Amino acid sequence: MQNTPLTAGQTPGKPRNILFLMTDQQRTDTLGCYGNTTGHTPHLDALAARGTTFDRAYTPTAICTPARASLLTGLQPFEHGLLANYEWNSGHREELPDGSPTFSAALAEQGYRLGHVGKWHVGRHRGPEFYGFEGVHLPGALNVFDDPGYTRWLAVNGFPQFHISDPIYTTRADGSQGHLIAGVTDQPTEATFEAYLADQTIAKLREFAVGRSGTQTPGVDPAGGYPAEPFFLSCHIFGPHLPYLIPRQWYDLVDPSAVELPGSFAETFNGKPLVQQTYADYWSTDCFSVEQWKKITAVYWGYVAMIDHQIGRILAVLDELGLTDSTAVMFTADHGEFTGAHRLNDKGPAMYEDIYRIPAIVAVPGEAGRHNDDFVSLIDFTATFIDIAGGDVSGIRGSSLLPLAAGTTPAGWRQDILCEFHGHHFPYAQRMLRDRDFKYIANPEGLDEFYDLHADPDELNNVINVPAYRDNVRSLRRNMYRQLIARGDKFAQWLAFAGDIPESERIRPVTAVERFIT
Q: What is the b/e burial string over 230-243, where b = at least 16 CB atoms within 10 angstroms of the residue's CB?
């Protein structure tokens, strides 16, 4: 069905275009609208000031490919089956099953033109073009500095080729060189991979504003005040995923003395699953002093500032083209990052707020700036895309964010958030349920976790076995079990027998052999 210009029966001001901006591995505390006080994200903060900032937004899983596949399909990771990044795959599938639902197909049915720039990482071989987007497949988790398009762009513009100076590595326990964490690139800001992606996004915006025929008036259809050819355009920036490789201008932008390390820096791993200490050893996080971690964090924030600068360029062109009043602009990240929090780095088998809570901003024309504290999911963006396009959201696991952006919380909106994990570097199954007061994490390897988020917001004290919390643990565990059953997540079978789920509530599959028992 083709979208038509605004008619008397439609709601005035509802956007038709969608500009979706996404980063990789970005903590919420890097942004001013989430409380960062260094003032290094003016453009995203300005976007938040005219939109809705979601303070309780979560990824379905804190790893790139499964989270991005959930965004594309509107399904939970256990449903679509892309459970790991292919670079560290341990036997999981590497492409979405044929016939998987996608928001791109739903928008195409509504007459939308689809564009994608930047990181894809949904599967190994099938890129955005396979799913109906105009765009080039940039494979992998990190900036593709040897991509022919990027190197050609550098040459055409007379920019120096990519090169790293002053690299910072971790030091392993045996004294050998570990992971690359940060470094200075010998390029101006205009030559960075992020600038390259912004240039492509701007070019695609200009192309979409004119339309396929090349003769439409840029911006809007004068008959109805809506774009004559609605579009969805996404720009997925690879950063601020480590390693933080940025020009000196941004590397030294933030004074390390302005950095306050999170309280979880005091992590001891006492009473925690052993895998967390093992993962800290893998990343050699203890090889850096407190002052060094402050500098590393300052560089990370500088990387965020550089990305904010490029997003500012994109938003300026949206305004120049007269598209701001007909376009919903959204910003989020696929997941967060530890950056030393809990003495961990990157992301991994620990379901802390640092990596599961994500920034989320929705700016809808005509709506005032506000903060919302309802629990929302990355998959809600999927439903929002389809809702804006006028499509059917009934098959999407998420819910449209448009009512929340208008200041209304629909009846029955979720009161908690359920997340899952299947492993990174190695298979490792986890499920997490978090409400406004507590967090319960089911770890089949042996030690579950329970955190009182009011008394212990840094999640340092695992009180799973503290008698005073016994009833709270039981309540969240049973709530998780019921939600897993409702979803069809077979992790519930483990929870039924490993936990204290009442026998009257357990759903036990009958084996083929048991059918012969009388």
A: bbbbbbbbbbbbbb
- In the chain the first and final C-alpha atoms are separated, in Å, by 56
- Backbone torsions φ then ψ of 435, nearest 5 degrees: -110, -165
Q: In the block, which residue shows the tokens 């560290």?
A: 88
3-state secondary structure of 505: coil
d(CA 485, CA 496): 10
In the sheet that holds 113-118, the strands lie side by side as 113-118, 231-236, 17-23, 327-333, 360-363, 52-58, 370-377
The C-alpha atoms of residue 331 and residue 26 are separated, in whole angstroms, by: 11
**CA neighbours closer than 13 Å in the CB half-sphere of residue 383:** 18
What pLDDT is attached to residue 183? Answer: 98
Q: What is the pTM of this model?
A: 0.94
Can the peptide bond before residue 101 be classed as cis, meaning omega within 30 degrees of 0?
no
Decide if pLDDT at 6 tops 60: no
Angle 16-17-21 (CA atoms, 0-180°, nearest 5)? 140
SS (H, E, C) 223-278: CCCECCCCEEEEEECCCCCCCEEECHHHHCCCCHHHCCCCHHHHCCCCCCCHHHHH
